[in-house]
DNA sequence: TCTTGCACTTT
DNA sequence: GAAAGTGCAAG
């Protein structure tokens, strides 16, 4: 995030050398390639991923939220993110097929509270939720397809239901998270389960947020109302609103719109008062829900970003106002030989259909736990195979990967791509949903080692590696030690223990892609 | 803190 | 017109 660390009241790590990375304007924020640390396995096997650039759509809007401290509502039924996560991808090989997916990982291991109009750490984080991946429903698609238009992950939903059966991304309330985009080169089978699957990871720090069940910061509420078209009903700027409010309040017209009331209330005690940040939105902004051209903030993004943080003591690499996403490139190493399961190479594949939109419909399993399509069941592929959803039903799926390790791709190393489940099983009503197990997520064990390679991200917390790893190849001095560690991780990932999931505590749940249950117990969840 | 029903909105 | 996405406010 731009300077979200301050808004979240965070004192992050002091070793943030990556802050030296060059800035870019918010209008031009392509990802930049971070070369892998010198490693025979990776340095020569980027496979064309290094040229990929990703820019965040509506970055100004994201930054506005980030400047305040983005909050995302999580509900039992699942809630979309707003602003929506949309990116422009360039640099892809037009004919090569890629799989685009997202995950949302903890930014740190803190729990937060909102008091005195600011976020402060209130304790240690709850054990992380089961990590899930949201695969863009168009996946796999050619580079030409992805580059043709914005790639939207808008339909991704967040939930606080630990047993969510819909494949939504499970988060803990009052915890801070970082969305990440992964671009994976599809293999010859339109999957990414084969050897040497190349991928890169893009992180836009300004998209970090704190998950909440209800908004804490009124500034965030206002930003949501003023920018999200679905919340238009809460905008208090016209006669209709006044009439509506009059009706709601049982008073005669006119009445003071709620937003105005809130604004006044905030202006008295909020640290944001007197900042020239009116809460009313301009007509232009109202007409363009995704526009950043509202009147909420008179400051330029740069000004906002450069403003000294109110409670931001130590800069963190991914919290500093870099205009660039952090990009990590990695190439899947060869499938480990010590797979406990004989058949580990489950493919994630689906024939490319170039006609679909990049904003295709994600697939949310019906609440009725309907059986999986037979076409899928007959397909020993993971999510991207031919399916009624992608063809007959004219609807592509967004596949959710649940990992036994809630740390998600942080520890999901390249090899783990090979262990994705066959879609049939993944789309089958669960009889063994991986119940969340409250293990400390950041301990270590050999199982975790497999998860640590992806994107060169191997440390437990996003901020501990994403912030460092990508830069060390370009940084020197203070990061030298870290760089050394990273290098060694690539060759021999660190040992780390991951939470286990008791596969028999939940009622049958329709899950999408639970990589750890039906894949012959991948090594990162098999230890026990 | 969280859930739920509501009115209102967009799609 | 229906379905789905919003924040609000009561509980």
Automatic annotation (TrEMBL):
Identification of the protein by name: T-box transcription factor TBX5
PROSITE patterns documented for this protein: TBOX_1 (PS01283), TBOX_3 (PS50252)
Swiss-Prot/TrEMBL keywords: DNA-binding, Nucleus, Transcription, Transcription regulation
Principal location: cytoplasm
GO cellular component entries: chromatin; cytoplasm; nucleus
An example Gene Ontology biological process: cell fate specification
Keyword Signal: no
Claim: DNA-binding is one of the keywords in the record: yes
Any one GO molecular-function label of the UniProt entry: DNA-binding transcription factor activity, RNA polymerase II-specific
Compositional bias ranges of the Pro residues kind: 363-374
Biased composition annotated in UniProt, kind: Polar residues: 22-35, 291-303
Subcellular location: Cytoplasm; Nucleus
Domain T-box: 56-236
Bias kind Low complexity: ranges: 36-47, 314-326, 472-484
Region called Disordered, residue ranges: 1-50, 264-327, 339-389, 468-503
Lineage: Eukaryota, Metazoa, Chordata, Craniata, Vertebrata
